[in-house]
Design brief:
Layout: E1 61-64, H1 67-82, E2 84-85, E3 95-96, E4 101-110, E5 122-132, E6 134-141, E7 147-153, E8 158-164, E9 173-176, E10 186-193, E11 197-202, E12 205-211, E13 219-239, E14 242-247, H2 252-257, E15 267-268, E16 278-279, H3 280-292, H4 297-308, E17 320-321, H5 340-357, H6 360-379, H7 410-423, H8 427-430, H9 434-451, E18 453-454, E19 459-463, E20 466-470, H10 472-480, H11 483-488, H12 492-502, E21 503-504, E22 507-508, H13 526-538, H14 542-556, H15 593-603, E23 605-607, E24 614-617, E25 626-633, E26 636-644, E27 650-655, E28 661-665, E29 676-678, E30 684-686, E31 689-693, E32 698-703
Parallel strand pairs: 24-28
Antiparallel strand pairs: 1-25, 2-15, 3-4, 4-13, 5-10, 5-13, 6-7, 6-13, 7-8, 8-9, 10-11, 11-12, 13-14, 16-17, 18-19, 19-20, 21-22, 23-24, 25-26, 26-27, 27-32, 28-31, 29-32, 30-31
Amino acid sequence: MDTYRINRYDITDQTTYINRLIQGGLRYQKLNLSCAGEIELSCVGFQPTVSATPISDLPGSFKCSDPVLNRIWQVGARTTQLNEIPTNSLPDFWVLTDEGAFIDSLVPQPLATDWSTQLTAYDLEFSVKSISNGFGFTVLSDTLSNGIYIFVNITNSSISAHAGSTERPVPLASATLPSFVTMNKWHAIHSVVNMTQISVKIDDTVVFHFTQTSAFCGSFGLGASFGHSAIFSNISLSVSGQLMYFSPLRNSSALNDFLLGTNPLSVSVDGSRRDRIAYAGDLDMTTGTAFTSTYGQEYLNGSIELLGSFQLPPGFFVPNAKIQQSPRTSEINGNITGLIGYSFSIVSSMARFYEQTGDVAFMNRWAPKAARMFDWAHSQTLANGLFNVSNSAMGGDWNYYDPSMSGVVAKFNLVYAYTLKQWIPFMDAAGLNRSRYASHLHILQTAINKHLWSDTLQAYYLSDTHKDFFSQEANALAILSDTAMIKNGTFKPVLETMARELYLPAGTLAFSNKSSASGWAQKVSPYASGYHLKAAFHANDSTNARHLLHSVWGPMSDPTHSNYTGCTWEVMNTDGTPGLGSSTSMCHAWGSGPTADLSRYVLGVQPVRPGFEEWQVVPQTLNLDWAQGKYPIPNGKIHVNWSFDPVDLLHMTVIAPEGTNGTVYLPAPLKRKLTKYDASGFTSTNEGSFTVQGRKNFTFHQTS
């Protein structure tokens, strides 16, 4: 995408201007009349590069008597739609010429190999000709381009080093360029890099030497600051005298080396503007939303195919992947990853995909990989039965601005339990030893309840090193995995604690109040709240479900809100404003969870057998007067319409595709006690439930 997100055109005649790169999630266009007179404009606007299908025409739908919930469903669906990237829709990032790679106003993108991000010392050489103003490059860069940015500004004869991927941060060091460094002339750059020192030589003259106190490792990238452009060629990297990489930067192989080509798969990304990368954690939330709205099965499958190919030998996965690459055909030779919770998230997404599709080939492909993840997790349990993270480098999470965790962490134990619980019903069909994994789950849940529950907090504390506060997501996962039910015989204590300690007028805290004293930010997370909402529905707690919907998602779905985008956001401050300032993603897929939950719990459509060969409709009324909609399934749609008339009598219709069968449960709670009804020939097998064959419409009318 266009990394600086600014394009300037001098409009002098009637023409159409099309930027070569994509400005994802664009909201505004600014037009300046810079001279006296008048100008008449027509056809000024944006051309979408993703689906522009109206929400009303999506495969799934949801409406009810509460307009706030209708808006929430729609913004979640639109967010998912904007983050579904079709195959081969991204443009090439660099322009390759006979001279080399022409780079114009683009943040450096790192060389992407299995070994490049682990580099601690290397010699970097390349040739460059500045076309306008100057150029830049990064060293010691991570996969998201953050490292040490070397900014060469020929217009003012300066060179400087900055932490990050642009020249915007305050310089760490700077110097004056010698007079022989000029525009439109080829220069040879030689940079000697180690973890704390960087030396830059231009045309055999050392022009810059920089020493820093913090030690880094990482790859390198080539770029140009905004308004700058240059042609790069003949780049080489050597380690201890051994050539590790060389490219003339004149053919498409260079685009593959730096992951700068188009996307070979249809994928679902985290945000339409930022970061436009496949993330396993985001995918776990998006999977449910997509199946109930866009039915973007190909995007989910592509994301799983990509992320699932990044499984390391121990069994865990890499948490994210740039979408400009093909799935790996071999494993990475490594034994460490980041964001260990996301390794469970990708396995959770696999279970959800199979639940919704019943795709046997998909299950057979991914079950062995899921089993490897579970086997590794079991190998990391301590004698007391708890899952342990031995390396803090693996203990980061979605809240990257908070401290990384290691040791026994409630979230990592409970996401393990939650994911394992989702997989156990499918293990027989997948050829896995169901009883063995069920035993692992039982041992894990017993240990969690014995060692991580706090009678003082009336919740599961954060970790063995932080016992005075708790995580919203971890306690929601305790409900979703039924671990809390095993402990207390009810979900009520945990939900009451979360309501008492986390609720704010502008949303719900991701961590309880005492967390700030230990360095945790006080933020409202639509991602963590998404699991909280699922937990409230799982517990059939309409009070907390309504509160979460209206307080967290109500404001961001309100068109009158000053920050309204028509999409769900990444994170919020405690006053409801975007939580990371101008960098906040305002179209973030991980916030779209309510769209899935309103269809699954308020319409009530749920699979009983994978692929909806057998289904059930179990609506929770949420004190609504009516709800209606359609839920896409592999061979059609299930239509549900239920309502209470002016005298509070229930009327309900369910239509399902031929070849399926299911059970319809009456919405709960009813507004009037059920004494008489007309169910058009259907007989209740149990009080309030009816067996329905597909293509035989179910209608129900409560009578007085």
